[in-house]
Amino acid sequence: MRSFRIECAVRQVHDGAMKQRTVPTQFGDLTLTEVEGAITAVNWTRVSQQDQSDVLDEAATQLAAYAAGTREGFDLPLRVAGSDFQRDVCAAMSAIPFGYTLTYGDIAKQLGVPAQAVGQACGGNPIPVIIPCHRVMGAKGLTGFSGAGGVETKVALLRHEGAAGLLI
Asked: Which terminus of the chain has fewer Cβ atoms in its 10 Å neighbourhood, N or C?
């Protein structure tokens, strides 16, 4: 079940419509942020507010199932803030199947851009885990990860997905 709806976020929303919920996982506490009916961020933090909405309920359920090993993909409304290029890279990462990896160079070839630009966009992914930037590797193997715990978290996510053999 793989479906991603990545929308354009042209403006920042400051109308108090932001809702958040923290989901504890073995990868750390992951806080989901929803704005106007779409997930806009996942951060390694814990928030005291635990808001309720249909989107947050479904996102929390899917994220918990992923962490439990009973779900391999996400079917959620997502809104990625940033340039068209950022959204293109996020869409390319979203297409990488569970348990597989691509290199920055692979995505760069798909998009017709330099690998370094893809790396920067991966590092700017506002919705990690759900948009699986951990599945993107350097040409020579493992590279950094912008989530809490850095590369160790990336390794844990890849092991969870059975892709750890690619790290050797």
From this structure: C
Number of other CB atoms surrounding residue 133 within 10 Å: 25
Decide which of 20, 55, 77 is a domain's last residue. 77
Check whether residue 89 and residue 72 sit in a common domain: no
Q: Of residues 8, 90, 122, 133, which has the active-site annotation?
A: 133
3-class SS at 130?
coil
Annotation says 133 is catalytic: yes
Give the distance, in angstroms, between the CA of residue 119 and the centroid of all CA atoms in the same chain: 14
- Decide which of 77, 109, 124 is a domain's last residue: 77
* 28 burial type by CB count under 10 A (0-12 exposed, 13-18 middle, 19+ buried): middle
pLDDT in tens, 14-51: 444 899 999 999 999 999 999 999 999 999 999 998 99
Print the domain residue range for 108: 84-160
What is the pTM assigned to this prediction? 0.87
